[in-house]
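From the pipeline queue, job 12 of 40. The input is one protein chain; the requested action is below.

Action: predict structure.
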Amino acid sequence: MLIARLIADQAQIGSDLKTRLDAASAQFDAAGMRLSSAAMVDFAGDVLQLSFAVGDVRAVMTVLDQHFAGRDMLVAEDTVELPRLFVSDMDSTMIGQECIDELADFAGLKDRVAAITERAMQGELDFASALRERVGLLAGLDEGAIDRCLAERIRPVPGAATLVATLKAKGCRSVLVTGGFHHFADPVAEMLGFERTVGNRLGVAGGKLTGELAGPISDAGTKLATLEEERDLLGEGARVLSTGDGANDIPMIAAADYGFAYRAKPKARDAANGRIDDGDLTAILKLLAIPQSEWVAA
């Protein structure tokens, strides 16, 4: 069985929900994926659930994209259950910034560093090489710029704290794993309620950034390994939720039961079975069918 959920707010989607659904249903039929049922989730308000006896996740998402463009959605095999593990990227996912780009601004190098970041997140550059290049450009920057950057630039995206707090209240463990830096990730994790943080470390000597990394690189492989390690500790059958936006999040997103691309780069979006293109991160709670009365404000 395949379950598809999408946020179908009448105020946004218009009065032609039935017309769109009929057109999508005809396309599903033509592709051999007959729609078994379609109904609004009773306690989730504006969430439409579609059920299929047989179907393909990618094919279903392709059809939904054509008829419900821009709608936040999740397509999952079997029933949708509460996750017991949440593993998330940080930059441009839990926070609205790319920390290294903002830090580079204190060295007058934001445009140059941001251009490399964008290409790396699009999957056009080797992540490790691009990371070393960007960190190298920061050599000599005063370590105090990190604290200034945190205080002046770094902000959670809407819904991030509520998402983490609500999942925690439901018994879900949250892990922040980033290709960014512990200097930023540790305070962000504390702010949002994550229980573990994995990331890179900037080299510092004499109060200045050395332009090198201290320790091994945290990259796409690290993100996947962290997810697998944490999932194994929970035992068989534990559902996993992940969120990310860039190419280095793809293995982690693909390995999760509910892998969400949050306002993501095309390659990451294509790898996900969940998409948040319109709403904030609380859209994930809606798609998991957690009633808003049970959300934990943070």
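Job complete. The longest strand covers residues 173-181.
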